[in-house]
Design brief:
single chain; about 500 residues; alpha/beta; Aspartate Aminotransferase, domain 1; Aspartate Aminotransferase, domain 2; 2 domains; seven-stranded mixed β-sheet; four-stranded antiparallel β-sheet; 18 helices; 14 strands; about 10% strand
Length: about 500
């Protein structure tokens, strides 16, 4: 039995010895392979050094020496720590003269002496307790005093409260917002509209939502201040053409086309935009959009039009410059407009195709980060749209008043009237103007004050002089509305003529 056990264990011991021998052989073979591999790699490295260009070896050698010098010899920077004596500290404190928190302002500055409104802003307005005929507010169609508008606004106030208290995407969307967007899209004959809560931020948000750094924007030099802020926010390359000058615009287009030929790769990635106002608030002129559309199609640029002052004014039914020139909606890529003028409400909207509008819901800063439009303001706009669709008499009367005012002002001996004949915005200046801007502004202020004393409220235009792209000349900005009759127009013109003659 012992012999049997011995015979069974012998083969297993032999197997163990064989396994150990195999492992040792494998390790020896691996070491031989690795040694030969390292030798081959070293030979390859030596050969690559011999084959490398001389400038490459010199550059690597210089870099190696520079790194070695930085490690061994470069001393770390230690700033000087010279301390001031107590006497030096006292002298510095005594000499220090801090900048004032508020700069010195002339106590007679117009902003510190503004007139206070104490009534509803309508056909007449109460300023500093004095009742005046209002020719200074953009209430073109008189909706600020419309009883049906007031009634609907009050009903909405009782139903929804004062405001939504949140942006549209964060519990700020009320059903009446969606209804107004639908009604505006139908009124403007576009696929969709997006509602903003502030008229200024509408165009100022819409421009940078599309135009970015590296893009090119062609823009009229007389655009309004909200458009200017949108241009700055876009960080695009700005190229201004002379006001309403189609030939100057084409010159800029041609120069841009020549630049594209020099660098076609860059041109392929550069987007181009043309931005204009339908009715320019700074001049009272109507944009020649029909001619600009031909250039836009020829040179392949995107067209943005701001209709803040033309909605409710231009076109037979007040649908703006598209209706005025009979232009197809697809010719304009993006339309923006304020609801604070013709509709006597608040906020603004952008209109266009669905994909254009949807992009603003994600990228329009004024839409994404501002509390939504108060529901009562949306209700007021809906009533105004209803009345415009039912009757165009307000628009027709406004057109007649604009023409009558324009014709009579042109007959005044000392008044230079600027603006389109059918525009409700008229800029009045002296025919013989002062060379100094401050003196001209003073004369116009005297005209406005003379009219105020006699019961006529007109506005002496003001601008942020250091920020305007092209600072307009001083003027009396006269705003015509549909509530005037022939007697009031004649009285206003005679009074303005007296005021200008007094300051000639």
């Amino acid at each position: 039995m012992l012999k049997q056990h011995f015979n069974q264990t012998i083969p297993s011991n032999f197997q163990i010895d064989n396994q150990i021998d195999n492992q040792i052989d494998n390790q020896i073979n691996y070491s031989i392979i690795m040694e030969s591999t390292n030798t081959w790699q070293l030979a390859e490295m030596v050969q690559s050094i011999y084959e490398a260009p001389a400038y490459h070896l010199i550059l690597e050698g210089a870099l190696f020496i520079w790194v070695l010098w930085l490690i061994l010899f470069r001393k770390s920077y230690k700033p000087k720590t010279d301390f001031l004596t107590e006497k030096e500290k006292d002298e510095l404190i005594q000499d220090w003269n801090p900048e004032p928190l508020v700069p010195k302002v002339d106590p007679n500055h117009f902003a510190l002496n503004s007139k206070v409104v104490s009534s509803k802003i309508g056909k007449y307005i109460e300023l500093n307790g004095k009742r005046c005929l209002n020719l200074g507010s953009h209430n073109y169609l008189g909706f600020s005093e419309e009883p049906d508008v007031d009634k609907m606004a009050i009903q909405s106030l009782r139903k929804y409260g004062c405001g939504s208290c949140g942006p549209r995407a964060f519990f700020g969307t009320v059903d009446i917002h969606l209804e107004l967007e639908k009604r505006l899209a139908q009124f403007m004959n576009v696929e969709e509209t997006v509602l903003y809560s502030y008229g200024f931020s509408t165009v100022a948000s819409a421009i940078p939502a599309y135009a970015k750094k590296g893009d090119i924007i062609f823009c009229d030099e007389a655009v309004s201040f909200p458009i200017q802020k949108g241009l700055v926010a876009s960080r695009s390359s700005l190229r201004f053409f002379k006001h309403n000058d189609v030939y100057d615009l084409e010159r800029l287009f041609k120069e841009s086309a020549e630049d594209d030929l020099k660098n076609p790769k860059k041109a392929k990635a550069t987007r181009k935009f043309l931005i204009v106002e339908a009715l320019y608030v700074n001049t009272g002129d109507i944009c020649p959009l029909d001619k600009m559309i031909k250039l836009k199609n020829k040179y392949k640029v995107r067209l943005f039009v701001d209709e803040s002052y033309s909605i409710g004014v231009l076109g037979k039914t007040g649908r703006g410059i598209k209706e005025h020139y009979d232009i197809d909606s697809l010719e304009i890529d993006n339309i923006t407009a304020s609801l604070e003028n013709s509709f006597a409400s608040y906020g603004g909207f952008a209109a266009g195709t669905s994909f254009i509008v949807d992009h603003q819901r994600l990228s329009g800063t004024g839409y994404c980060f501002s509390a939504s439009l108060p529901p009562l303001q949306a209700a007021a706009v809906i009533v105004a749209i209803d009345q415009l669709e039912q009757s165009t008499e307000r628009i027709s009367q406004l057109r007649r008043n604009c023409i009558q005012f324009h014709d009579q002002l042109k007959k005044c001996a000392h008044i230079q009237v600027e603006g389109d004949e059918i525009s409700p915005i008229k800029h009045l200046r002296f025919k013989y103007q002062s060379e100094e801007r401050a003196e001209e502004q003073r004369r116009l202020d005297n005209v406005a004050n003379y009219c105020f004393d006699k019961g006529l409220a007109v506005v002496s235009s003001r601008y942020l002089e250091e920020e305007e792209i092209r600072l307009p000349k001083p003027s009396i900005r006269l705003i015509v509305n549909s509530m005037l009759d022939e007697e009031l127009i004649n009285w206003s013109v005679n009074l303005l003529s007296e005021a200008f003659e007094k300051e000639k």
